[in-house]
Amino acid sequence: LEVFDSIKCQNIYQLFKQNNTWFVPTLRLMEVVYPDAPDWKQDPNVKYMPKGEFDYFANEYDSIIRNLWGPFHPKVEEKRRNIVSNMNEAGVGLLAGSDAGELGLIYGFSLHEELVSLQNAGLTPLEVLQTATLNPAKYQNAIDSLGTIEQGKVADLILLSKNPLEDIRNTKEIEAVFTNYRYLNRKDLDSLLLDVENYIKNEN
């Protein structure tokens, strides 16, 4: 923090933009691993984490990673968010990714938490939404088939009951999913989640 150079950072951002280098912030991971962060094991969605993964994190990796990162530092956290916001303002391409598979990050659910973290970093809800939709399509040079809702594009999308452009947290209000030529309503989705939960309960 004492030697941080915003001018050097801006030069790097412009280099990223010039070279079409994309950045995945993974803010959520850092919010989970601080020693004094809320206990990830109390997350109600932890029941969907594979047993082997949960046991490894809880019994071995948790103490290791928390000791490595050290205590929460408000100014460091603020600077991390500012860097992401400044990158966005400089035109650097941002992609949503939570680092799922790391400590306390539950596949699928952690992406929604990452979107909230990006909003907390200063991105508008629309900009956040684009990090998980339009921007990945651009990164993959697949804008002709993905990234936006248009006739002729792949119907790979979710139907929400609340507007994510008002608050990105509304991406969690899922009513239905269209994927692989299938329509899954809320009842179907709940059934899939229950199957996962029961499978994990029955793991040896």
What does this structure look like?
By secondary structure, this protein is mainly alpha-helical. The protein has eight helices and three strands, in the order αααααααβββα. The protein has a three-stranded antiparallel beta sheet. Helix 5 packs across helix 6. The radius of gyration is 19 Å and the shape is flat. It starts with 5 loop residues before the first helix and ends with a helix. The mean pLDDT is 93.
Total E-strand runs: 3
**Coarse structural class:** mainly alpha
Nearest-angstrom radius of gyration?
19 Å
**Overall 3D shape:** flat
Query: Which parts are unreliable, with pLDDT below 50 for 5 consecutive residues or more?
Result: none
The share of residues in helices is 40-55%
Portion in strands: 5-15%
Mean of residue pLDDT values:
93
Tally of helical runs: 8
H/E series: HHHHHHHEEEH
Distance between the termini: 47 Å
Largest beta sheet, briefly? 3 strands, antiparallel
Side-by-side strand order of the widest sheet: 1-2-3
List keywords for this structure.
mainly alpha, flat, 3-stranded antiparallel beta sheet
Q: Outline of this structure?
A:
With 204 residues, this protein is mainly alpha-helical. 47% of the residues lie in helices and 7% in strands.
Q: Could you give the topology of this structure?
A:
Layout: H1 6-18, H2 27-33, H3 51-69, H4 74-89, H5 109-120, H6 125-131, H7 134-139, E1 157-160, E2 174-179, E3 182-185, H8 186-201
Helix pairs in contact: 5-6
